[in-house]
C-alpha cells in the first residue's frame, strides 16, 4: 500500500441519506458513485455483520464484472455516520486498502455500538440517528499507481 505521500489520482465524496433505520433489512447497499473512473458503493449492516451489537459499514468496489484481469486500486477512505440535523454529531473511521477482485470491500465490522446510536453521548448533545434517519458519507481518495 502506498504511503501518505503518494500522488492523488482522484478524490470524491458521496453522501447517502438513510431513513426508516429501525425497519431496514440486515444488509443494504447505497446507490453507486464514481471515483477514479470506477463505480463504488457503501455497504451497511445496520444491525451488525456477524456482530449484532455493532453497526457495520464498508466501502465496496462495484465494477467487478467490468474490471480488467489483475485490476487493483489503492484507496484511502473515510466513512462517516452523522446526524443530518446536527453535523457535529458524527462518528468516523478511516483506512487504507488495496482493493482487488478478490478483496473488493473493506471497512469496519465494529463501526459503532448499536445501542449508542439513538441517544446523545458525553461529547454530543444529539443522537447520531434522529427521527429514524442519518447520513453516511464516504470520502474516497484514489492513489496513482507507481
TrEMBL record:
Q: Which Gene3D superfamilies match?
A: Apoptosis, Tumor Necrosis Factor Receptor Associated Protein 2, Chain A (2.60.210.10)
Question: Which Pfam families does its entry note?
Answer: MATH_2
Domain of life, per lineage: Eukaryota
UniProt keyword terms in alphabetical order: Coiled coil
Any idea where the MATH domain is?
11-140
| Entry keyword Repeat | no
SMART domains this protein is in? Answer: MATH
Task: Check the record and name the InterPro entries matching this protein.
Answer: MATH/TRAF_dom (IPR002083), MCC (IPR050804), TRAF-like (IPR008974)
The UniProt entry, under PANTHER family, shows: MATH DOMAIN-CONTAINING PROTEIN, TRAF-LIKE SUPERFAMILY PROTEIN
What's this protein's name? Answer: Cysteine proteinase
- State the organism's lineage: Eukaryota, Fungi, Fungi incertae sedis, Mucoromycota, Glomeromycotina
